[in-house]
Design a protein that fits this description.
4 strands, four-stranded parallel beta sheet
Length: about 350
């Protein structure tokens, strides 16, 4: 082996070793999250802010105990490391919209080291309507547009908006037990979804919500002024609009009871159409069997594709998350320069 070749190999080895060890020289910022599902979401968010001087490690609140949930994450704010080498990343839930009405909400809203989803949870962002066609493509490998997700979720949101304001109205007061999220979710269930008549379930939800709003208006006859003030605040200051209410309802309900049932129907139709194409284009039975087998082996699980959906990058809540992280990092950099 020539000396030049040996030198090149040695140089390449050192460079590779330096690249492997460079992580140790960077500042490590721990990002505590609520659950296993949150790890991938916040890793996707924070990866955009890693550079030669810092990196993030996303983890659950404790490596010693199987602690999970927002309360466990926020308890780390009591640590002296909060803000220097540690941040907390949580679902907003209702805590963002009730603006400090509870201790958890107050802690989440006031700390510059807590980052939240603005939307109720990561599930809401995964169900961001403009991205759902891509979820169908990922699951079925069929790019034909047969359903308008944006229009459906806009109509759904408008049908529940006024009742949603009543839900927040209750949770900003110590009377949330009079109209719980569970009760709200029962009213806004879409029921059986039909791809042939999607507006039927919207009309059903609109009817139920309208009746419940009428009942609440009678129960709280003096609440009109405070209700209208809250409605204006939610729309003008907090980003909730009649067309985007679905982003702020309980995430698991949206994911399991609305998005997945709709996606199931749409994807089933797309799969049937693709299989029909294969049957029409196959020239003999062997080719038909092979093509159908190949296609079916390529199909993906819809909930899993939805959990991996990152099409929320263009949503307003995601942009607000990015702004918060940038503000935090700019502040940290400024403090470092001052030292």
């Amino acid at each position: 082996m020539s000396k030049r070749l040996r030198d090149n190999i040695s140089s390449g080895y050192v460079e590779a070793a330096n690249r492997l060890n460079s992580r140790k020289s960077r500042r490590r910022i721990v990002a505590y999250v609520e659950s296993y599902d949150d790890v991938f979401f916040w890793r996707t968010v924070l990866a955009n802010y890693e550079n030669d001087s810092r990196y993030f490690e996303v983890m659950l609140p404790s490596r010693k105990k199987l602690e999970r949930g927002k309360k466990s994450v926020l308890m780390n704010l009591l640590s002296e490391k909060a803000g220097n080498d540690m941040i907390c990343c949580v679902d907003a839930d209702y805590d963002y919209l009730i603006k400090g009405a509870t201790e958890t909400s107050l802690r989440m809203m006031q700390s510059p080291f807590v980052f939240h989803t603005y939307a109720y949870s990561i599930e809401n962002l995964q169900c961001y309507a403009p991205s759902l066609h891509n979820v169908c493509v990922a699951a079925t490998l069929n790019d034909k547009r047969i359903f308008d997700f944006e229009e459906f979720f806009s109509q759904y949101s408008e049908s529940i908006f006024h009742l949603f304001v009543w839900s927040i109205w209750h949770y900003r007061r110590p009377i949330y037990g009079n109209f719980t999220i569970t009760e709200f979710n029962k009213v806004i269930e879409i029921g059986k979804f039909s791809l042939n008549n999607p507006m039927q379930c919207i009309q059903n939800v609109r009817r139920k919500a309208y009746n419940k709003v009428g009942w609440l208006q009678k129960k709280y006859p003096d609440a009109k002024e405070s209700y209208l003030a809250l409605k204006k605040e939610l729309m003008e200051e907090m980003g909730v609009t009649p067309a985007t209410t679905y982003l702020y309802i309980q995430g698991h309900h949206l994911f399991d009871k609305v998005a997945v049932p709709v996606l199931d129907k749409v994807c089933s139709q797309l799969i049937q159409e693709r299989e029909k194409e294969i049957r029409c284009q196959s020239v003999h039975s062997t080719q038909l069997r092979n093509e159908l087998a190949s296609y079916n082996h390529s199909l993906q699980d819809i909930p899993q594709m939805l959990k991996k959906n990152a099409g929320y990058f263009m949503s307003e809540p995601f942009k607000w998350i990015q702004e918060d992280i940038k503000t935090y990092l700019d502040g940290q950099q400024s403090q470092t320069l001052q030292k």
